[in-house]
From TrEMBL:
<dbReference type="GO" id="GO:0004177">
    <property type="term" value="F:aminopeptidase activity"/>
</dbReference>
<feature type="domain" description="ERAP1-like C-terminal">
    <location>
        <begin position="534"/>
        <end position="846"/>
    </location>
</feature>
<feature type="domain" description="Peptidase M1 membrane alanine aminopeptidase">
    <location>
        <begin position="244"/>
        <end position="457"/>
    </location>
</feature>
<dbReference type="Pfam" id="PF11838">
    <property type="entry name" value="ERAP1_C"/>
</dbReference>
<dbReference type="InterPro" id="IPR001930">
    <property type="entry name" value="Peptidase_M1"/>
</dbReference>
<dbReference type="Pfam" id="PF17900">
    <property type="entry name" value="Peptidase_M1_N"/>
</dbReference>
<dbReference type="Pfam" id="PF01433">
    <property type="entry name" value="Peptidase_M1"/>
</dbReference>
<dbReference type="InterPro" id="IPR012778">
    <property type="entry name" value="Pept_M1_aminopeptidase"/>
</dbReference>
<keyword id="KW-0031">Aminopeptidase</keyword>
<protein>
    <recommendedName>
        <fullName>Aminopeptidase N</fullName>
        <ecNumber>3.4.11.2</ecNumber>
    </recommendedName>
</protein>
<dbReference type="InterPro" id="IPR014782">
    <property type="entry name" value="Peptidase_M1_dom"/>
</dbReference>
<dbReference type="InterPro" id="IPR024571">
    <property type="entry name" value="ERAP1-like_C_dom"/>
</dbReference>
<keyword id="KW-0479">Metal-binding</keyword>
<keyword id="KW-0862">Zinc</keyword>
<dbReference type="InterPro" id="IPR045357">
    <property type="entry name" value="Aminopeptidase_N-like_N"/>
</dbReference>
<dbReference type="InterPro" id="IPR042097">
    <property type="entry name" value="Aminopeptidase_N-like_N_sf"/>
</dbReference>
<keyword id="KW-0645">Protease</keyword>
Amino acid sequence: MSQANLTHIEAQFRAEALTLSAYHLHLDISQAANHEEKAYPVTSRIEFRTTEPELFIDYLGADVTALTINNEPADVDFRDGRIYLHDLPINEDLTVEIAGLSSYSRSGQGLHRMHDTADGKSYLYSHLEPSDARRIFPCFEQPDLKARFHVKLSAPAEWEILSNQPEISRKISSATSSDSGEVAEVATVEFAETPLLSTYLTSFAAGPYASKKQTWTAPDESLTVELRSLARASMADFLDDEILELTAQGMDFFHENFDFPYPWGKYDSIFVPEYNLGAMENPGLVTFTESYLFRSAPTRSQHAARTNTILHEMSHMWFGDLVTPQWWDDLWLKESFAEYMGADSSGHSTQYVEAWTNFAGSRKNWAYAQDQLPTTHPIKAEIPDVDAARQNFDGITYAKGAAVLKQLVHYVGRDEFYSGARDYFKAHAFAAATFDDLLDSLRNHTDRDLDTWSDAWLKTSGPDTLTPEITVTDDAIESLGIAATAEGATRPHRVSISLFDASLARTDTFDVDIAAGSSTTTIAEAQGKPAPSLILINDGDHTYAKVRFDDTSLESLRGRLSELRGGAEEELSRAVIWTALWNMTRDGKWAATEFIDTVLQHAPAEDNTNLMGTNFANARFAVKNFLAEEHRDDKRAEVAAKFWELLTEAEAGSDAQLTIARSAIATLAATPEDSGTQRLKDILDGHIEGLELSPDIRWSTTQALAARDAVSEEVLEEQRHRDNTLTGAAEYLGAKYSYPTAENKRYIFDQVRIPQAYSNAEVMQLLAAFGAPGSSELTDGFAEEFFKVLYTIWAEHPIEIANHIVRGLFPNQEMALGATDKFLSQGEVPGALRRVLLECQDNVRRNLMVQNAQ
């Protein structure tokens, strides 16, 4: 199947030539329960006008069976993922109708179909961003070509049958099952016409989904909307009430703050398995990963993360769905804003007031790491084609973009920012827009120079670094300045700098403007203040920059970070500090052992389990990647012993105990000490008081024991029968192939490269087993073979799965540096693959750099 790559130039040509009116779609998935059926019939009738006689329609289907233009049969010219239309009448109303066969997906792209092992039922859902609507129906696949959609779905009558809009009619007919020969009822459901909508935002789902519902009424009683949450039947018990409560709270927030009534009729939230990402903002039918349904005891941190995602997607109903970026170079115009809104609305409308702390201490790590790769790019990036767009759903577009918006809000004021957004929605509703359009709306509410600001922040890449420069005389500050450095020109920052005394209590905070291009900014108000024990730049996390510490501050943090206590303000300060320490470690500016020891000493005292869990994970990463090989085993043993001690002392049943347990299992899996095996068995046997043996604890412990070759296959089978679910089946696969044998590594290396052999969830489990603790000696031998099969991997798999396979098999060895250069120098490498390889190569290079800096 062709993976035709639409270019921006082609999209611009079609945008100028076309005036779209409507799509009339009919998807016949009545035989979807028969998994021998690989494709389903689709009819797409498109109404439009054109100024060009030669056009192409995008379609990644299996076949085109008929084509008519204005009801007259036409020759089918279908090749390379496109249906070419010739000699079209110009400046006339046209109707092009295409009958095709589209393929069911196992990759999470297009119309994904899965078989639930728990009850034998089949389920379908779609995922189309950025350009996979063409996998389902023939269309003009680009965000600025909006149209009204009229959708019909034919499916088994007993199923839930869903699309973006509410159902308006249902016709029942009889059909003979293609697998059993039995006669069954089929429902053909017609849905209400959509408002103007981009193709990637259309959405379809069908299956025996279970649901909950409630009605939301706007605070001013001007609008009512039916809210539903849905999941496959075997997961119905985990559709907790909080999901709809949070949905209603979000609707209140956005109704009041956006001043544009929710425009999409209904609001369904459907939780689906084998999903490639966290969620997708399809208006009226939002899809979420099923991992947000808590089969296992969740921490408050997990609840907060789910809340953030629910509200992130809801904000898209306006930022992205109501007003859509014209092209993917403005992808950030929806994703950065939604990332910002997810945190801001969480903090202002739900109980999870720590949202900005979690952002500062966790999500921004993603941004800083991505922004220092050789493939970093400006927030407003150059996107030549849709494959490049896929790669930009990254830490720049999401986390850095949101951090920069947070700086913009601090720069112009929160009320002014929301006022500009309200004007933007009113001016561009149901249309496509650019960032210049948003700036025009913001200019009416601030006298700040937004053009200079946007050029500095949105059109450059890489983080600034802010470092304190202090002179102390007789225990008093003689001078205090902030040095700003960057690879290019530094950016403007409005930032808070706080001083803390010997008890780590905040004594002074200065609101400082750092001008673009400046090297050092002097804080005159600090002169004469008592010499601080800690200087914290970016207190409150208002800007995006790497933060450094002077020697006195670093000494204070190493010995006493957990003494910085208080309320929400101090918690956010600790988040900023933890992120800064991690950046210093990644940059080789602070010894990895110092960071690891600081985490072990101070992170267990964190009240916020997001900060606790993030830093535990960073410490584990540092042990594995930042220590020289000869020192790793000793540190692994030390860290594993410490986590076991923490686990046995943690409050039974607490969030802290669960967070520690997850890290303890990971460290015990990797420790060279024999005690790791017995301690893992103690966890699995239920010897830790208060620790619930939920599915995730059972599977992670079982997989850890398998990696140590310390669990029987009979135990694996017991776990499989205990968790007879689709998720359990994938977890079992991961455990089965985690045993440290050459045969297992060979099997995984070969199997994940077979197209369609496994679902995306199973591929991820197999890749995790390939890199299980203690596997390096067994996997190192695949390094040269990896580079020989790279082209085949990329050519034979959908881009999402290919991305995971390449990253999962990439050798974490020094030889990979030269091998990558050699591969990239031979022939024309697809741009998306080039980017993946450069990022993998740079991760290895950074690991070696940090090791050598110790």
